[in-house]
Amino acid sequence: MKAALLVLSLLGQPAIPISDRVPVLNVEGLCRDVSADDKASGLALAQDAGECLRDEKLAQQQLSSAWLTVPGPARESCEGEATAGGIESYVDLLTCLQMAGWANPAPPPAPPLRGASKMRNAKN
């Protein structure tokens, strides 16, 4: 990292430290507010604060496994977008990186295939 900062300083560009860790975001307030807004709006499928927190935690875990594979400028840009206006969201951060072509989630496990296999009717 020191070499990268040295190269940037030699090129006349300001050195901006980029974190090697997923930022720590406060999502509890966001989830409480979203849940309250959904209920106040009378939405039939209002999101529960607990569901929101589970989604945020899952997004944080996905970010943790992909964070270092994303270039610093993309991380910085998406972090700024995901925390704009004082609203912080790991889901927004992950979505931004995915839309930029980074941090794609692993595909879900494939179901067992039977198809036309000769063994499809074999008893285990």
UniProtKB/TrEMBL annotation:
The UniProt annotation puts the region (Disordered) at 104-124
Q: What is the name of this protein? A: Secreted protein
What organism does this protein naturally occur in?
Answer: Bradyrhizobium iriomotense
